[in-house]
Protein 1
Amino acid sequence: MYAMVLEKAGQPLRLKEEPVPRPKPDQVLIRVHACGVCRTDLHIVDGELSEPKLPLIPGHEIVGRVVQAGEKVEGFRVGERIGVPWLASACGHCSYCAKGRENLCDEPVFTGYGIDGGYAEYTVANAQYCFHLAEGTEDTAMAPLLCAGLIGYRSYRLAGEEVRKLGLYGFGAAAHILTQVAKHEGKSVYAFTKTGDRKGQAFARRLGAVWAGGSDEQPPEKLEAAIIFAPVGALVPAALRALGKGGTVVCGGIHMSDIPSFPYDLLWGERVVRSVANLTRRDGQEFLALAAKVPVRTDVTVYPLEQANAALSDLRSGKIEGAAVLAMDFK
């Protein structure tokens, strides 16, 4: 099979011919049809997440079909459509797993970080941590739901169920999905982009944002919650300034630059700053059902597998509107 391989952080991926992996008893072998290109992949390739297995096949927004199942696999059949997320497995016995908080597991394994992922024609995955995917949606359109959608949904839940005025900082893959969910549930979305990004602001308004502006601007009214998807620590005090009393700022990324100091007055008034870590299988099941109900429509830019470096470069430079996706059969 062909795969894009990271051999050393900070270097481009290499297109290599690798053996097709063999599934373990609890794994399925998957023919990959599409794999989303996530900002987490960029953090891994650029060395900002510093403990990947190397060499590594990145990618954790995987859509494909089961071609072989290990003898202990239950619930998936050969030929079935399947989705593989970031959380590849959890230990099942630590205090967090015991409380149903497997996203905080002490011994987690992550797809495309601790084990090989989906920038390849085939991959293997623990069937217990995969998702059944309904038919009827293009593989490339479905892929971003498996991380941008899932982490966006967990961030959205932690922002508070009663929130009606929601700010989104960084209008990329996650925010363009979450805007549709929030609008469906009657919330008003205020979108914050890079200063001067008129194209991104117009994109947000097309998707239903009631206001869109630069991250250096104040919204026309105070927010009840804000979610930060951009990995920029300076956005934390910016979001606090836009937040009303009792509101929450959720940091939705796995990596962020240092947060600058800010006066306590920005936090006072029972405002809260919190992070989001990974996802649970319950998050995935809930979100995929909700996404079908909305229904969520993803905007994607599609690249062939061998152009994974170009996709990462375009994501790094902010050229992607919506999400970037690798398609194994795209020419």
Note: The longest strand covers residues 27-37.
Protein 2
Amino acid sequence: MERKRKVPASVTVAGEVIEGVNLLVPAKQRSRFFEAALRRELRRLLRQARNAQDLAILNERTARLDRETDDLLKLQADPFE
């Protein structure tokens, strides 16, 4: 992924979140910390959306194959009839 220029953004965050971040990183590194966390979460959400889309495709194709299999089984002769 190509890195674009940085754009300033203002967000409001709960005080306890800032306190927790301050325990982990110096105040001057907060932006870097938040950007890394947002990138990870964005990747996770995008992967989750792709997985859901893939699952929907697999389910649709499975249903179609099940119907085809049922049709083929109906065409087979029952040897006990």
Note: The two ends are 64 Å apart (CA to CA).
Protein 3
Amino acid sequence: MVLSFRLFCLKTGVQILLREYSFDSKNRLTFFEEDVINIFPVVKHINPRVCMNYSFVTTTLLLI
């Protein structure tokens, strides 16, 4: 359960307070608003290929 919670935080960009969380109790909340420290954007990128760069350059030169 802790591993899946960690993966969720990594994929969504949520940073939470470092403390011992109890996932066993169903009657009590696991974490609160105060536990969320920061929310940062998760950016995924693709490394451009040489053929893409060539087409960008040729298109730009034609526009000039």
Note: The chain has two helices and two strands.
